[in-house]
Prior knowledge:
The structure holds 2 protein chains of 2 kinds. Helix content of chain A is 66%, strand content 0%. By secondary structure, chain A is an all-alpha fold. Chain B has helices at residues 9-22, 29-40, 47-58, 68-79, 83-110, 123-127, 168-181, 212-220, 236-262, 266-298, 311-314, 323-376, and strands at residues 153-163, 185-192, 200-208, 224-234, 299-308. The longest helix of chain B has 54 residues, at 323-376. Chain B is elongated and about 160 Å long. Chain B starts with 8 loop residues before the first helix and ends with a helix. At the A-B interface, helix 1, helix 2, helix 3, helix 4 and helix 5 of A face helix 1, helix 2, helix 3 and helix 12 of B.
Amino acid sequence: xxxxxxxxxxxxxxxxxxxxxxxxxxxxxxxxxxxxxxxxxxxxxxxxxxxxxxxxxxxxxxxxxxxxxxxxxxxxxxxxxxxxxxxxxxxxxxxxxxxxxxxxxxxxxxxxxxxxxxxxxxxxxxxxxxxxxxxxxxxxxxxxxxxxxxxxxxxxxxxxxxxxxxxxxxxxxxxxx
Amino acid sequence: xxxxxxxxxxxxxxxxxxxxxxxxxxxxxxxxxxxxxxxxxxxxxxxxxxxxxxxxxxxxxxxxxxxxxxxxxxxxxxxxxxxxxxxxxxxxxxxxxxxxxxxxxxxxxxxxxxxxxxxxxxxxxxxxxxxxxxxxxxxxxxxxxxxxxxxxxxxxxxxxxxxxxxxxxxxxxxxxxxxxxxxxxxxxxxxxxxxxxxxxxxxxxxxxxxxxxxxxxxxxxxxxxxxxxxxxxxxxxxxxxxxxxxxxxxxxxxxxxxxxxxxxxxxxxxxxxxxxxxxxxxxxxxxxxxxxxxxxxxxxxxxxxxxxxxxxxxxxxxxxxxxxxxxxxxxxxxxxxxxxxxxxxxxxxxxxxxxxxxxxxxxxxxxxxxxxxxxxx
Lengths: 177, 377
């Protein structure tokens, strides 16, 4: 779905951060990342809205010297998602998956459907930390440097984690008939 | 030992290939297919959410209209402020409390306590019966007196009267007149006239001890009595001692005079005369002591101060709130303010340091807690 032009009210103090541009360029990516991490459509919607709300409220605290605006926004979204995961753990709520491996449309071509099922199964089998970094890379489209900023670690460590997760995911996809 | 912060070349190469595949480079067909498959699983944003987000973005992400339970929760959050708000608030409250506790006595302790408007009488003065004026008294703590010997009690009084500024001279005249009427004397007097702030008078009187109450009654009628103080001191011991010393010296002088009359030799005469000179000096000293004590007990010292009305308000000696009073008050306010600030600083500094340390410690803790959500799966 395309992003329509939205006029976010401009604030003089936020001149350093083009929040409107950031919102337009990241809206779908933030949702994709959060949904991929949480694997819960309803919770992902709430967390996505919450992330933008928090980011807008804290837009003055953005410091370009500490990283890109997208890394900053995804850091906020990740924190909101982790808070949701903790809440969920406390209330022991079972959630539905957006990446349910069996939820393949019936009219998909057989081969395509099979491949998607394999990938979904492999994604579901990843550890949450691995799924986190895969979602940041594949769904949000962040660079390794930005991922490092979001995760609060060095670019080398972020690259290592990403590499391991991708290797594991590929192995899982290749291993599944 | 410090770890090298560089990626393994193989890993670096594979990550670069991944980035290329993500960018659409079909160099590695297998990787490109894998990337395509994974990206196909990218959850698309629901239309409803996109529209809602756009609307909220347009309104500056104002809080959503809350459902009933959410509204209740929000109200609850309002009632229970966050720690970020609560900690400084508690710190400030504690500071104010400590400042009040510390500065309270400081403020009240340095204020001069003003004598009550009613008569302020020392306990000893009230225990002295009226019939003791210059006569037999039963002052607490006094030594037992031999029968037939009168007690000697020194009495003093202090009176502060207030009158309007233009009445001060009349009151001053009345003080002198009342002193005359009771047979007393004005030892010193000082009368100031002028505006309300400067008018006033002060007197040091001596009035017969037996007429002290009468004198005080007359003086009290001259103006509004702001304070009245009486005290008494039993000096019987000193008086008896001086009297006995005098009697002994007189007796010795009589004996020496008899010896002088009977003296035969010049040496004996000279010796007796020398001794007589000494005894004569002792007699003079003893007589002066007796006279002084008698005067002190026969005449009571009365101090009378006349203040212009309103003098007590500004704290000045005789009148309204003057610029001098204002300066003194301003200095006092500054002193108290500085004291409160100092106490506040003494409380806030450690509280601030503690809060800072807690804040520094809380950040990584919060981060670890969040990350633990990923560990649990």
